[in-house]
Amino acid sequence: MKKILFTYDLNKDSPSDKWGRVREAIIRKFPTHWCRLTTTWIVETQLSAVQMRDWLATLLDSNDELFVVDITGSDAAWLGIDAKGATWLREVLNR
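-> structure tokens emitted (95 positions)
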């Protein structure tokens, strides 16, 4: 399985429930996920970065911003992540 990191900014003045709708859609589609930095996620998936971008684009407005990268097999480091988050990162990124 690939590990895809993505982050987005919802720029349009929109109802505050849009943040929740986007979050819930991601959680439903990707059972193995990590989100500790508001709109920065790591998910485990078979999708490519391009396929992930295209799927996420269906949740976003035309002026929102999105960055998607495949981090499978990449070296990783972090700071300030609690023990639970660090354990998840070590376990999933090292699969």
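The chain has a mean pLDDT of 91.
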